[in-house]
Amino acid sequence: MSFCTFQQLLRIVAGLLFLMASIVASLPSSGTSRPSTRLDRDFDSKTVAEFVERILEIMPGEDSNQLHVLVEEAIVNGEDGVVETVIDVLLNDHQEDSGNDATEQENLQDAVECGCCFATYPFEEMIQCPETHLFCSPCMNTHSSILLGSHNPDILCMDQSGCTAEISPSELRRCLPTKTIELWERVKQRRDLESAGLDNLLYCPFCDWACIISENDAGQILMCRNRKVCGVISCRWCKKLDHRPNMCEVDSKGKHHVDEAMSGALVRQCPGCKKPFIKETGCNKMKCPSANCGTYSCYICRQIIKGYDHFDQTIGTADRRSETCRLWDAVDERHAEDVRVAAERALKEYHLQNTKVDIKSVEGVEHPASTAVA
Length: 374
Fold this sequence. Notes:
Residues 110-322 form the RING-type domain. The protein is mainly α. The chain contains nine helices and 14 strands.
């Protein structure tokens, strides 16, 4: 029964007194004016329900469950105790409601608005960017999951003002779910490794474990050392589970290995961030296409450069400085030469790994003709 006014209290007391008159009138004569306990009276649950129904006719809208309790108390205590019983119940209920109302009011006073969904939450449940923009945990979790799904660990402020401040790791760990934090740490670690520019970095195809292999390591398998989570032994060439003693399809034909090398000859990787790109036209001074990098490199030797001093800027063959890379050359001729060299190197690598296979028997591999670059 919820808290009521003084007038409603009087109505309830009057109703129960009326009910008690009905109870007393219906009792069989026992020689005493008032039995000591309810157990002495032959009242079952059906009888109590009937009395509750009658009192609800007098006071519609009251809590029937609470009235069941009051009726049973009235039967036990009789007319003299019914008023005290009703008041005690109402006072206890009022104290509980007052406590709940006070707590709710306190929470409303501390509530702040999320800068994304504009719903209000307690301040301690909010995530704050360095510029004091506040967001609720559900919105930040959704925002983080979308970024991490695209392998981006940079979780920035999403305020509509255009703020791009990065949310601190301590704030993320305080409010985001454990699984989201673990994913964020893995994505961040992988990005850091890739940004380090480590040569011969090899990833397990079944988890985020990575290692650096020797240039002379021509082994076929990769043994993942992340044994608690993965520990899979995989084939370095096809990126599938170890299929020994069966020879890898890539090795059995050699075609895939050589084709990849020939295709890769047309692709350059930024020496700064490792982002791949392909040159179509223009000079040999290349700028990384990534907006977050912008590193300049030489398309020929693939080294990081700063200006044009690295290049021989002579047009044609006259007075050319042969020890430097040319600023301009024919793109098609350059690509043809790169593909030819890559194919020969890949065939030699294949032969070293499969000494019993004749290089000429490799199916589907065309040997590009050499095209000299002036």
